Amino acid sequence: MSKKSKQGRKAQQSGGGTPATVALAASGVPFTVHSYAHDPAAPSYGEEAATALGVSPDQVFKTLLAEVDGALTVAVVPVSGSLDLKSLAAAVGGKRAVMADPAAAERSTGYVLGGISPLGQRKRLPTVLDASAEGRPTICVSAGRRGLEVELSPADLAALTGARIARIARG
What we know:
Elements: E1 4-7, H1 10-13, H2 19-27, E2 32-35, H3 45-53, E3 61-68, E4 71-78, E5 82-83, H4 85-91, E6 97-99, H5 102-109, E7 127-130, E8 139-145, E9 148-152, H6 154-161, E10 164-166, E11 169-170
């Protein structure tokens, strides 16, 4: 990957940390922060990140919020696919899932759309990580703002967020 910047605890000490990077630094798990110049005209935040970092869209995961039976739930899926709402509902023992209202997602997480990280959210929500992450040494997820990604192992992401692993992506 290109454009590697701060690693580990340096993200917290730099003063430029986000709640996600501060939480990662405090956890002690290894991670790498990657930054790139975000283009506001980019049609897809995730695909923009993959292109900017020079990695496959299968390695970059987007963080989506849905309501499962009325409760906000975090879904982390590859940017190369889409979220299967029925599978997400089943993964958390629910019956019906719909995408969350964008304003509710921002309020609950403390992040803006396109920069929502599964880490460091204001309120810990049920989280499901797509099973395609398993077996990969690392994946990239938003570090809490547009143009900033964090790379870490899927196992560490699951442990830090309390995520269940399930097939929730299509495509």
